[in-house]
Amino acid sequence: MSKTSRARLLTVAASTVLAALSLTACNDGTGTQDEGRAAGTSPSATASSPAAAPDSPVPSATTDRSATTGSTGSSATTGSSGTGTGGGAGTSTARTPVSKAPAGKPVTCEGSVTRTVAAPLTRPVNHMLLTVTNTGSRSCYLYGYPAVRFGEAQSVPPVIEASQPQAVVTLAPGESGYASVNLSATDGSAANGHTVKSLAVYFQGRSGSESVGTGARPSLPAKGVYVDDSLAVTYWQQSMDDAVSW
Q1: Contact 169, 114 (CB under 8 A)
Q2: Confidence (pLDDT) at 79
Q3: Which domain does 124 fall in, by range?
Q4: Distance of alpha carbon 169 from alpha carbon 95, whole angstroms
């Protein structure tokens, strides 16, 4: 081989080695920059761009709403304070109260809807207390005064007019009304005194001129009670104190 050809081969080989070294320097970041890259553009800036990570999950408005609903949103509220079966500190479901049927209009107090008790009193002396209790389901009116018959008497005793109350006595179910009976004179001055062992009580209607319904037959003490011509009764009273004050 001639000297000229050998020189050319050496030159080509040296050029090839230099080119390889140049490419290696550029690839490991220590060499000169690629002249084909735009000025001011670096690999790190390009890698930090959002477009470089398309697979990263980006929360959407829909995703945020579903997450809120799962913890504090409407679905959680329904579970704790809604009208369903959820418990917790929420507002409980209020039950609609069941309205009761109307009790109806008041009736007249009489034997079938009342219970009557007769009890002799020690004070005032020679007096008896009549207690009438409403045992029905509706209120009732105690009109006027009790028409009482002791023993075989043919008439009823008079009423003490001054005892008339300002209003008709009204008894709700379970409530009681009262009247007192003056059995005999305390000084023994009245005539026709005698002992009786039975009593019938009749009730008046609104007009006060006749008895209505059924009467009552309260029991008396076994020894009976003493009555005379001074026998008198009070009007029905709303309270026991008013009844025994005459």
Answers
A1: no
A2: 42
A3: 107-243
A4: 38
Fill in the DSSP letter of residue 71: H
| C-alpha–C-alpha distance, residues 220 and 89, integer Å | 64
pLDDT (tens digit, 9 = 90+) per residue, 213-233?
999 999 999 999 999 999 999
Over the stretch 44-68, which tens digit does the pLDDT of each residue have? 443 444 444 444 343 444 434 433 4
Assign 210 a pLDDT band (cuts: 50, 70, 90): confident
Residue 88 CA to residue 82 CA, distance in Å, equals 10
Average pLDDT, the chain: 74
Residue 204 lies in a domain: yes
Give the DSSP letter string of 194-231.
EEE--EEEEEE-TTSSSEEEEEE-----TT-EEE-TT-
Report the DSSP beta bridge partners of residue 130: 118, 179
Count up the domains in the chain and report the number: 1
**C-alpha to C-alpha distances, 86 to 12, 38, 69, 110, nearest whole angstrom:** 87, 64, 16, 55
Return the DSSP state at 237. B
| pLDDT digits 0-9 by tens, 140-192 | 999 999 999 999 999 999 999 999 999 999 999 999 999 999 999 999 899 99
Residue 201 domain-assigned (yes or no): yes
